[in-house]
Design brief:
about 375 residues; alpha/beta; Aspartate Aminotransferase, domain 1; Aspartate Aminotransferase, domain 2; 7-stranded mixed sheet; 3-stranded antiparallel sheet; 10 helices; 12 strands; globular; binds pyridoxal-5'-phosphate
């Protein structure tokens, strides 16, 4: 049987999760957030982003995010259009002085390294690669002015502890799928950037970056160095707009609203440790289940590198693609492995918006499907 024709297996209703969205981005948006958005359908949506109604929401999300991350004085939350992918180009223009080092351990971390390697104004990046399912460690080097780390490699489900290498290069972290679901220490980081459609349960299209005073100084330094930078990719322009609770060009207002609601939801329940705790509980459920089953095992062998927000589980003796198809036909969505990784695997989003009890229900559904298939 090819993965195109999944057997028709009907999962009993009582086994199903309350919400069937387990994707790793776009990921589950809380229905409550969407309800709140509907409530401002005529007072906020469709109004000017240069007026106070929208600026207040941007201000609220910037302040809320600073509180959530416990940022020291002098840090700023910057934001703009284009997502984390666009931020790689902005960093290539506006953060790297001469030479960067990249820890490359999956699809996303390798893409930033490629963007830098192609830039004619920079030296060749130093790229440290490790096998998929693991992460490499930064190596201090006096020629490096930016260390590019990734908090959570979404393609493989590997997360890393963020540690500042010795020396004075900026530590620039792609936290797209980790931010809001994993804890980190601002003392170890200079730029912590992400998109809203993963732990922050918003929609795509924006990038956000928490920037230390050293990072802001680097942005200023490069802006006055005479380097040519296209305006839409200019971090200095983004910085100047962000501190006025503005973006350089028009943002998606719904995304900003949902992001702010998610940040406030996290703060109301106890902040980052609470949000990260929900993901940690989901991860205990998923990996514990995989270890208990003969047909499943966690893909990441080192428990310390296993992600709490993106779970990857290898299956044996059963086609994972068919399992995902059967789940999809039953309303359980986006459990497919990252395509380019090429593993017989399920990949499960465990972001804070996803209820740990729904992760438990998902495992029961996989048990049911596999029993029916064999
Ligand atoms: C999703 C993701 C990206 C890309 O985000 P976009 O918003 O699509 O640009 C980059 N890095 C990581 C780690 C991701 O998970």
């Amino acid at each position: 049987m090819s993965t195109n024709d999944a057997p028709s297996i009907h999962i009993p209703r009582e086994l199903l999760p309350n919400d069937g969205r387990f994707g790793c981005g776009p990921s589950k948006v809380r229905p409550e957030g969407l309800g709140e958005l509907a409530a401002v359908a005529t007072s906020y949506m469709g109004t000017s982003h240069r007026q106070s109604t929208v600026k207040k929401v941007v201000g609220s999300l910037r302040a809320g995010m600073s509180e959530l991350f416990g940022l020291p004085d002098g840090w700023e939350i910057l934001l703009g259009n284009g997502g984390a992918t666009c931020f790689w180009d902005m960093a290539t223009f506006g953060l790297i002085r001469e030479r960067s080092q990249h820890l490359s351990f999956g699809e996303f971390s390798s893409k930033f390294a490629s963007a830098v390697a192609a830039a004619p104004h920079l030296g060749d990046p130093m790229v440290i690669v490790s096998d998929p399912g693991t992460h490499p460690v930064a190596v201090p080097d006096p020629s490096i002015d930016v260390y590019a780390l990734t908090h959570n490699e979404t393609s493989t489900g590997v997360s890393m502890q963020l540690r500042r290498p010795a020396g004075d290069g900026l530590v620039v972290v792609d936290a797209t799928s980790g931010a809001g679901g994993l804890e980190w220490d601002p003392a170890e980081v200079d730029v912590y950037y992400f998109s809203p459609q993963k732990c922050f349960a918003g929609d795509g299209g924006l990038w956000l970056a928490a920037c230390s005073p050293r990072a802001l100084a680097r942005i200023d330094e490069i802006a006055t160095s005479g380097r040519w930078v296209p305006a839409s990719l200019d971090l200095k322009i983004a910085y100047d707009n962000s501190i006025q609770n503005q973006t350089y060009n028009t943002p998606a207002l719904a995304t900003i609203f949902l992001l702010d609601r998610q940040v406030q939801w996290m703060l109301e329940h106890g902040g980052l440790s609470w949000a990260a705790g929900r993901s940690a509980e989901s991860a205990r459920i998923l990996y514990g289940w995989a270890q208990d089953r003969a047909f499943a095992s966690p893909y990441v062998t080192d428990p310390a590198q296993r992600s709490n927000v993106v779970g990857t589980v290898d299956l044996e003796g059963v086609d994972a693609g068919i399992v995902s198809k059967v789940l999809r036909a039953n309303g359980i969505l986006d459990t497919e492995a990252y395509r380019k990784l090429g593993r017989n695997q399920l990949r499960i989003g465990m972001f804070p918006a996803i209820d740990p009890s729904d992760v438990a229900s998902l495992t029961a559904c996989v048990d049911f499907v596999i029993a029916e298939m064999s």
